[in-house]
Design brief:
Elements (H helix, E strand, L loop, with lengths): L11 H35 L3 E6 L5 E7 L4 E7 H20 L1
Antiparallel strand pairs: 1-2, 2-3
C-alpha cells in the first residue's frame, strides 16, 4: 500500500522544479570538488605528506594526525572554524566557475 502525505501549504510542483535545477548544479560542484581533492591529495603525496587519522574529539574540536617525511604531527581544529573555511572555499569555487 502506497501512501502520500501532502500538506495543504506545500507546492509540490515548486519542489520538483527546484529539485530539477539544484540537483545538476550540486552534482557538477561535487564532481569538481572531488577532482580537486584528488589533485591536491596527489600533490601532498609527492611531498610525502598524508593524513593518517581524523578524530572527532568532541562536539567542538577535531584532531588530525598528519605524517610527513620527518615525523608525525597532531593538529587540533575547531569544528566551527573548519565549517566556516569549507563554506568560504565553496563560495569561492562557485564564483570562479561563474567567471
Amino acid at each position: 500500500m502506497t501512501s502520500v502525505f501532502l500538506c495543504e501549504n506545500v507546492d509540490i510542483s515548486a519542489f520538483v522544479k527546484s529539485h530539477l535545477v539544484i540537483t545538476p548544479l550540486m552534482d557538477a560542484l561535487l564532481k569538481d570538488l572531488r577532482q580537486e581533492y584528488f589533485d591536491l591529495k596527489r600533490q601532498l603525496a609527492q611531498q610525502k605528506i598524508r593524513v593518517i587519522e581524523w578524530n572527532h574529539g568532541d562536539e567542538y574540536f577535531s584532531d588530525v594526525q598528519i605524517a610527513t617525511a620527518g615525523n608525525d604531527v597532531v593538529l587540533r581544529y575547531a569544528n566551527q572554524a573548519l565549517k566556516t573555511q569549507v563554506e568560504k572555499l565553496l563560495i569561492n569555487h562557485i564564483n570562479e566557475k561563474r567567471k
